[in-house]
């Protein structure tokens, strides 16, 4: 298995080097850690998919580097006094890639699709919306069932991305095969697990600010191979450098290192009630606590993280005003872990640990396997291609999964969908009615201090239930070719190409 995998990666690297020698100067090549899932923003759920969407599909609003909301397809917005009506003024010069005009009616059609499509992943994000009106071509009005402090943040991500409504007729799966969006680049082709190609959309309202004729996104799971290809000239930008390579990359004058502290996290979560495989030893909260106590996050940071991982014990990173000192990171305690297993009537626990098959997560999984073994756990590792892993998680085909989340500007995006009983990303089917109530209440409270107090209450329950194990907060370490100019890393980890150029070599 390992030999086959290494051969495939080496071959991919060789092919990529060949591509690097033939692309035109106006092309930009971006190395991704995984292949995205479906290219339909209403149905998609991967981080790398969001990177592609950033160039493909404009949103109603965006964020700046300081996480403030800024205009994109919406030029301005305002709230009613009771915070239940949100009114957008829209651009009048935007178009979809099929030439049709973007206006309030098309925005309405997109939001209604995101809310009503059977397999939409955006339903929970837009659950507060009661109705949508388009009283004028440049005016979009959202009337809410209740105040929703999270809504603007949702509309700065996939819930606010705009597709041509002409593509909504017929099979919804066709939308993701050839997405027709409204961003600075339009879809050309996709070869699964090989490349996604976008081409500049000349009718884009800010086309003059985008320098590249084509974007080529290349999924290369092995971070070492990604870095080798960038150094050899086969890539211009890579996302998620292997953290263990960070010290040497910082000293490498032939490339540029552009890290930024992120908003997301890596977690281990358990199958508690999703199908037959939920019938396992980890249904006992004592076993889950024992597994967490077997893990030394600081060692993972030093060995795998290159010193750039911040240990986590909650969904909100230290930069967030919702981060709480009430939930410190637990120290490793093997003796206590063994005592908990004994209390549960167990001397040994066998289980399966699935994870996305890339260099960093593989190393983390192997370290956790070794640490857990000292406390009485025998974990069988199951590396899986990441998009396939998400499908298996949704279907309940797992016991424990290592999963990353890229993070959201609003705290709701880091917690609600993961732990509410019907949350779209709650693949383990953890369910606590009091948590649901608290998190629903938090969505309606705009006051930061009051909202934080509600999140603290919810987190107290979640910690008592040991529903998951947060490992570390997700940094975004980018590496750029030496001739890339104008690139700015953002805390959400997205690659924004406005103003980015390649200098002459």
Automatic annotation (TrEMBL):
<protein>
    <submittedName>
        <fullName>ABC transporter substrate-binding protein</fullName>
    </submittedName>
</protein>
<dbReference type="GO" id="GO:0015833">
    <property type="term" value="P:peptide transport"/>
</dbReference>
<dbReference type="GO" id="GO:0043190">
    <property type="term" value="C:ATP-binding cassette (ABC) transporter complex"/>
</dbReference>
<comment type="similarity">
    <text>Belongs to the bacterial solute-binding protein 5 family.</text>
</comment>
<feature type="signal peptide">
    <location>
        <begin position="1"/>
        <end position="24"/>
    </location>
</feature>
<dbReference type="Pfam" id="PF00496">
    <property type="entry name" value="SBP_bac_5"/>
</dbReference>
<dbReference type="GO" id="GO:1904680">
    <property type="term" value="F:peptide transmembrane transporter activity"/>
</dbReference>
<dbReference type="InterPro" id="IPR000914">
    <property type="entry name" value="SBP_5_dom"/>
</dbReference>
<dbReference type="InterPro" id="IPR030678">
    <property type="entry name" value="Peptide/Ni-bd"/>
</dbReference>
<feature type="domain" description="Solute-binding protein family 5">
    <location>
        <begin position="69"/>
        <end position="423"/>
    </location>
</feature>
<dbReference type="InterPro" id="IPR039424">
    <property type="entry name" value="SBP_5"/>
</dbReference>
<keyword id="KW-0732">Signal</keyword>
<dbReference type="GO" id="GO:0030288">
    <property type="term" value="C:outer membrane-bounded periplasmic space"/>
</dbReference>
